[in-house]
Amino acid sequence: MADKDDDLLSQYKKDFHADYGAFEEQRDKANEDFRFAVVSGGQWEGFLEDAYEGRAKLELDQVSDYVHRTYGQWTLNRIGVHYSPDDEKTTDDDAELLNGLYRRDFRRANGATAIDNAVLEALYCGVGAFHIATEYDDKEDVDSDYQNAVFRPIHNAYSMVVWDCAAKRIDKADAERCTVIYEYSRDAFERKFPDAQASNAFTPDDRREFNWGTKNSVFVACRYTVKTEKDVAYVFGNPITGQMETVYRSQGDDAKDEAMGLGFELLREKRIERRYVTKVLFSGTQILEDEERIAGKRIPIIPIYAFRSYVDGQEYFHGLVRKRVDGQRLFNMEVSKLAEDSATANKRVPLFDPNQVKGMENHWAGDISRKPYMPIRPIYDKSGNIIHNGPLGYLEQSPIDPNTKALIELTAQFIQTGTGGAPQDTINPDASGKAIKAVIERIDLNTQPIMENIATAVKWAGFVYREIAADIYAQPRMIKTVAEDGGEQSVRLMSVDVDQDSGMPVYRNDLSKGRFEVVVDTGPQYQSRREATVETLKEIYAGLGENDPNRAAVLGMLIENLDGTGIDDLREYNRRRLLMMGIRKPETDEERQLLAQMSQQPDPQQKLVEAAATQQLAEAQQMRASAVQKIEDAKLKRAKALETVDGMKARRMEMMLDVLQG
Question: Are the C-beta atoms of 523 and 441 separated by less than 8 Å?
């Protein structure tokens, strides 16, 4: 086993030195650019060191401002990732789930910090990089295997990230290996690897000798390797639902048996090659952590280039500093010389006869500009008469060389032409959102290629993240997602529902499947676009009449985009109104349930109609009952009348009988 590890370690180090040596000159230039712009005194490192030893070395930095201004443009117009369905089987809900998870991981793991660091390094020296890694949700819980994606910065990527020398693509998607150098202090190394010998896998060739102090560091290498394995894919189909399912031979026979047990039938099989990535950690003398498989199918290191080209089969890259180094050095040299002359030259040097200052030499020594008066002897002739009183003349200071003056002006003009000088646009704090957006979008065309390269890198990061998410978010779990406006919602991954048509169980929120297109969102950040939307809606609302049917809808969207404190209740009320109006689609299960409940309730007009009908029916029933009562009363009166008549008839008959009998 030890011999095998030694062979692997030897191969790792051999590959590393081959990859590093292929771009060693570019790495050295990048290190020089970085120190030139960042380190105090860096603009004089390696430049006229002997000629300017012990002399003034001024740095009137005009290059860093250009870098900072371009970086400021980036921070105002950060590029984001957006996923959309790329086939018929992938739904908009699947894409929104992936978008929500990306925003969640990007926010909770400081993704902006990682990418910002890579962008800034690219602006300085031509290349930067960041790492999309995974970490356990709870490292102390032995029963939990839940993982999350995290974004980590890589500092000094020009020296610490070494790509496969055969890779040609700007995103290094064609690289088969990548080695990242991590720097530990000796104490930190001994704590992390207590049984290992502290030896360097590689010592970066940089300019640490110029630093005031250096650390006692240990450099460890982490190698990522892309590998492929042959496999067989079995494609199953459900004859009832039409649902498709793919399992692989590497998953074992249980996966096939489970599919057939759920009513699936084998449709076809295909021999394939599956990609995967491994990681191994090694020092100069041993393998510190054995090779292991990691999530995803791509190397999780994302490079960002500023300007990049291939010349004679060799990769060349640079940032905003390199092409302006000579002009900045020339400007510093001339200004330093001018300052030196100004500091050492006297105003005017008086000329005297030695007899004029005899005995008063100490008075005239040193700086005489602060003395209230200076004694001087006159010059006498042979007869004792004063023939001259005061200096015999003056030694004038040397005028500024016109060539030096012209060179300073020419150099300053050259630097300003290349960098654009100080920004002329200032943003009025009272300006509207649209006006601010217009200022932001005026991007210097000199840096536009850099923004395109950054967009390419961020897009590739979206691809890498999607494949990592397919592996780590393939277990049933509750997880939070983040909407574009920053709102959070809880989602259950791999939830099981019953298909209403077939009665078979189906998975919802399954990120292990589906095809997604990665689109980068360029332009102002969401907050800037939101403010511009509010301004536009205000203009539309002001132009609508009082009775315009669209007025309520526009007002609702305006409230929806407002941002501030104390308006949560208003926004919640407005959200319900927009749902009922059909302007806003339900995004959560709670909103869908709310919409279903509200749709079952009749609208107020219908309720008024029904109430009126009910009232009319009640009044009709009351009138009918009253009529029936009147009829009954009439019948009773008629019966009483008949009874009275019958009584009267009976008494009359009795009276007639009495008369006849009488």
Answer: yes
For residues 479 and 491, give the distance between their C-alpha atoms in angstroms, rounded to a whole number.
5
Distance CA 110, CA 153 (A): 9
Say yes or no: 594 and 620 in one domain.
no
Confidence of residue 56 (pLDDT cuts 50, 70, 90): confident
Structural domain includes residue 519: no
Is residue 148 within 8 A of residue 472, CB to CB? The reply is yes
Residue 170 lies in a domain: yes
Instruction: Specify the pairing of strand 161-163 against strand 177-185.
Output: antiparallel
Domain containing 642 equals 616-662
Give which of 156, 199, 204, 183 is closest to 16, Cα–Cα: 204
Q: Are residues 439 and 568 in the same domain?
A: no
Q: Are the CB atoms for 136 and 514 separated by under 8 Å?
A: no
Same domain membership, residue 630 and residue 566: no
Q: Is 366 left (phi over 0), alpha (psi -120 to 50) or beta?
A: left
Q: Considering the entire predicted model, what is its pTM?
A: 0.72
Report the C-alpha gap between 487 and 482 in whole angstroms. Answer: 6
Give the residue among 392, 476, 384 at the shortest CA–CA distance from 145. 476
| 435, 564: one domain | no
Residues 19 and 130 in one domain: yes
Could you please report the per-residue DSSP string of 365-396? Answer: SS--TT-S----PPEE-TTS-EEE-S-SEEEE
pLDDT tens digits along 73-107: 898 888 899 999 998 888 898 999 999 999 999 99
Residue by residue, DSSP assigns 607-622 as HHHHHHHHHHHHHHHH
Cα separation, 146 vs 389, whole angstroms? 98
- Tell me the sheet residues that pair with 132: 151
Residue 15, number of CB atoms within 10 A of its CB: 18
Shared domain check, 629 and 595: no
> Contact at 8 Å (CB) between 535 and 542?
no
Q: How many domains does the chain have?
A: 3
Same domain, 20 and 165: yes
| C-alpha span between 318 and 305 (Å, rounded) | 8
pLDDT at 185 over 80: yes
**Exposed, middle or buried: residue 462 (CB in 10 Å: 0-12, 13-18, 19+)?**
buried
Beta bridge partners of 580: none
Is 64 inside a domain boundary?
A: yes
> Which position has the token pair 């896998």?
201
Give the end of a domain, one of 508, 532, 563: 508
> 375 lies in a domain?
no
Do 480 and 625 share a domain, yes or no? no
Burial category of 213 from C-beta neighbours within 10 Å (exposed 0-12, middle 13-18, buried 19 and up)? exposed
